[in-house]
Structure prediction request, 164 residues.
Amino acid sequence: MRSNRYFEVGSAILLLSLVWTNTAVAQKSSKYACSEPNPAQLCNADNSCGSPNTPCVVDVKRTSNASSSTASIEKPKANALFCVKPGTKVTWKSTGKETGFVVDIGGPTSPFDPAGAIIGGSDREVSVTAKKPGCYKYSAGACVSGAVYGMCGTATAEVIVTGD
Prediction:
């Protein structure tokens, strides 16, 4: 009798945990903002960068195992989503010593003017202006001069140019 009761309780706990796990998985959103139905809804005061009068500054660095890009947002975090309004100047730079970088917007169109790859380094900031609203994935590669192994690294991140 006792073993049946333990079996029933154990089965009920297992069933509840499976239901909870399936519910949690169903509620989980995509890893990428650009895969969401309306990514601009993810923009808020914490991840908005710059304004038409103040540039958004993005620091591209070589990390120990890749690279990172960190926008000048309220709570900066490497490779975090950031949002800009059309007309905002975005300045890409590297504060890492002797570091070069390439930022490449994935896809056939660029949200920035001038379009194309953004190539700069610790001695050369590059400024572009946000023009075309939308959500864009980009890769940021950074290389450190003089390193023998693992000289370059790449990371991916996203930027949203809002429609307002």
Q: What stands out?
A: The first helix runs from residue 2 to 27. The chain has one helix and ten strands.
